[in-house]
Write a structure and sequence with these properties.
Length: 226
């Protein structure tokens, strides 16, 4: 995984057919996805439950690009090795998930993965000020985590502040929640480079009509480029 700030579209398989993940992953990659975003929820840190390490390991067999695993779980540290073994390329933990995010990011890198740190909408950019040399990606949540299909919360001021704090460091800014053709240009102008999109990619398509995924991805990318 080399670093660059080109726009990357990361469809969230939270909006895929849960009975058909393998074909869904292959369809979005064939249709232009740059990364595959995997939302892990524990019914405790967030009020919803998705899947754990064995399922993520099964997804890995189908991912040819980058498997980007977003942990919405607490605690995180006991599960880091399991997600490394499952084949995560990027593993993101929430700064709100526990008192020792610094240790968590060290452990993620120590297990051979890129380390991401996510910020809920109510958490200021300054929460990561002392973590920027330990992280490869800052995920700015533009919804309260837990569900797909929610309304975008404007965090462009936070993105701008992060972009300035990051400077020349090789740290991605990822946006997660409510990204579509209308909101993508706002966050990219503020400095984001990785756009997670669930409902806006999967809407209207299926594994039988994958070209709809392709059109949706292309539309977000074109809007983001302005
Ligand atoms: C929300 C998840 C997101 C979500 C995005 O808790 O982290 O990745 O799937 O879905 P949309 O794009 O529908 O807001
Ligand atoms: Zn996510």
């Amino acid at each position: 995984m080399s670093f660059d700030r080109s726009i990357k579209i990361a469809p969230s398989i939270l909006s895929a057919d849960f009975a058909d993940f393998g074909r869904e992953i292959r369809a979005i990659e064939d249709q232009g996805a740059d990364w595959v975003h995997v939302d892990v929820m524990d019914g405790h840190f967030v009020p919803n439950l998705t899947f754990g390490p064995p399922a993520v390991k099964a997804f890995r067999a189908h991912v040819k690009t980058v498997m980007d695993v977003h942990l919405m779980i607490a605690p995180v540290d006991p599960y880091i090795d399991a997600y490394a073994a499952a084949g995560a390329d990027v593993l993101t933990a929430h700064v709100e998930a526990g008192p020792h995010i610094h240790r968590t990011l060290q452990a993620i890198r120590g297990a051979g993965m890129k380390a991401g740190v996510a910020l809920n909408p109510g958490t200021p950019a300054e929460a990561v000020a002392h973590l920027l040399d330990l992280t490869d990606l800052v995920c700015v949540m533009t919804v309260n985590p837990g569900f797909g299909g929610q309304k975008f919360i404007d965090m462009t001021a936070k993105v701008r502040a992060l972009r300035a704090m990051i400077g020349d460091r090789p740290v991605h800014i990822q946006i997660d929640g409510g990204v579509d053709v209308t909101t993508a240009p706002l966050v990219v102008a503020a400095g984001a480079d990785v756009l997670v999109a669930g409902s806006a990619v999967f809407k209207g398509g299926s594994v039988a009509r994958p070209e709809v995924y392709g059109a949706n991805i292309a539309a977000i990318r074109a809007a983001a480029r302005g």
